[in-house]
Automatic annotation (TrEMBL):
Gene (UniProt): fcl
Family: Belongs to the NAD(P)-dependent epimerase/dehydratase family. Fucose synthase subfamily.
Residues that bind substrate: 185, 200, 207, 267
Alphabetically ordered keywords of this record: Isomerase, Multifunctional enzyme, NADP, Oxidoreductase
Annotated positions for site Important for catalytic activity: 105, 107
Protein name: GDP-L-fucose synthase
Domain NAD-dependent epimerase/dehydratase per the UniProt entry, residue ranges: 6-235
MF-aspect GO terms: GDP-L-fucose synthase activity; isomerase activity; NADP+ binding
One GO term (biological process): 'de novo' GDP-L-fucose biosynthetic process
Organism of provenance: Qipengyuania marisflavi
InterPro entries, per database record: Epimerase_deHydtase (IPR001509), GDP_fucose/colitose_synth (IPR028614), NAD(P)-bd_dom_sf (IPR036291)
Coiled-coil stretches: none
Active site: 134
Catalytic reactions on record: GDP-beta-L-fucose + NADP(+) = GDP-4-dehydro-alpha-D-rhamnose + NADPH + H(+)
Pathway given in the UniProt record: Nucleotide-sugar biosynthesis; GDP-L-fucose biosynthesis via de novo pathway; GDP-L-fucose from GDP-alpha-D-mannose: step 2/2
Length: 316
């Protein structure tokens, strides 16, 4: 990284913000693009790359959302993510970018893959229907990076993060992932003195969570040390049922009421714990335990609520 220019695509998002925080500790120049550069537009992306010619790219821009957003807006998730991946990867090839890291997601794996899921489970079975569109776009991105390595010799690599959370998350009630949704719901129920909250689905699906700062460390390690076609899993190695997660979030937030389930909402895949042994062998390990990470995320939520209301945030 020393002396290189690194373009963080999607720097306003949760992962992009974490990457910028992490790259600020490196001897590199961070490049970002205005949001007016719509990465779905081929000419805009080509123009930006021709002007800035980054040495390295981390592709953390995507149409992202939780289970409900994925299920109800598959057209956007498929089109936007295919277009963003194709435009950025092709522009990087044209401008001879020396390193590119594409970010996929653990939802690329078959719904009933053996657990923990190793990288070679890709394309061995049917996908989870709630996020099939997003998964297909992400698989296309992995395959494009791999094909460009094979055909053109581009040093393009891919990482598959598990479910992420942390500062800068999306707290929208309908489109968010489970952790920000539960933080928000428990916080507002506590403030309103309500005696219960409901979680979507049955509470039995298991999920593996990783704090976004641990992902940023993994990305820098891969950028500096990894150069191969094989995509790399990035997970914490631990999962838990959503019902238990909800109890943990309630404890962190200080909500003491009942936690009900809402089986009319989708459960999604029953389990997607990844095998991250390849990355561990390179010397990476997560540093942030789930409960500590949830406290950090709740503090960030309080800061963002306070900014919205123009007041000083309370202590969590
Ligand atoms: N969050 C998670 O749990 C996981 C995320 N990932 C991957 O990590 C990456 C980042 O996700 P995350 O940070 O959570 O998502 P966010 O939604 O927080 O950030 C995505 C960023 O991409 C930008 N973006 C979206 N569309 C365009 C576009 N057409 N042109 C320019 N910029 C665009 C968004 O800008 P704007 O908001 O202005 O539209 C936003 O800043 C994605 O590739 C995602 O697939 C992988 C596994 C899990
Ligand atoms: C990262 C990953 O994110 C998405 O997949 P997902 O893992 O299913 O993500 P999720 O965080 O939205 O839900 C996790 C679990 O939690 C349950 N759940 C309970 N209560 C709420 C709730 O209030 N909101 C949400 N969103 N989920 C809830 C929910 O029913 C599910 O069982 C993919 O579409 C895809 O984008 C992807 O790759």
């Amino acid at each position: 990284m020393a002396g290189k220019s690194v373009y963080v695509a999607g720097h306003r998002g949760m992962v992009g913000q974490a990457l910028v925080r992490r790259l600020e500790q490196e001897d590199c120049r961070i490049l970002t693009a205005e949001r007016s550069v719509d990465l779905r537009e081929q000419a805009a992306v080509r123009g930006w790359f021709a002007q800035h010619r980054p040495d390295a790219v981390v592709l953390a821009a995507a149409r992202v959302g939780g289970i409900m957003a994925n299920q109800t807006r598959p057209g956007e998730f498929l089109y936007d993510n295919i277009a963003i991946a194709a435009n950025v990867i092709e522009a990087a090839r044209q401008q001879e970018t020396s390193k590119l890291l594409f970010l996929g997601s653990s939802c690329i794996y078959p719904k009933f893959a053996d657990q923990p899921i190793a990288e070679d489970a890709l394309l061995t079975g049917p996908l989870e229907p709630t996020n099939e569109a997003y998964a297909i776009a992400k698989i296309a991105g992995i395959k494009l990076a791999a094909a460009y390595r094979r055909q053109y010799g581009c040093d393009f690599i891919s990482a598959m993060p598990t479910n992420l959370y942390g500062p800068g998350d999306n707290y929208d009630a309908d489109s968010s992932h489970v952790i920000p949704a539960l933080i928000r719901r428990a916080h507002h129920a506590k403030a309103a003195g309500e005696d219960s909250i409901a979680i979507w689905g049955t509470g039995t699906p298991r999920r593996e969570f990783l704090h976004v700062d641990d992902l940023a460390d993994a990305c820098v390690l891969l950028l500096e040390n990894y150069s191969d076609e094989q995509h790399i899993n990035v997970g914490s190695g631990k999962d838990l049922p959503i019902g238990q997660l909800a109890a943990l979030v309630a404890r962190v937030v200080g909500f003491t009421g009942r936690i009900d389930t809402d089986p009319s909402k989708p459960d999604g895949t029953p389990r997607k714990l990844m095998d991250s042994a390849r990355l561990s062998a390179m010397g990476w390990a997560p540093r942030i335990a789930l409960e500590d990470g949830l406290r950090d995320a709740y503090a960030a939520f309080l800061r963002s609520e306070a900014r919205g209301m123009g007041v000083t945030p309370p202590t969590p």
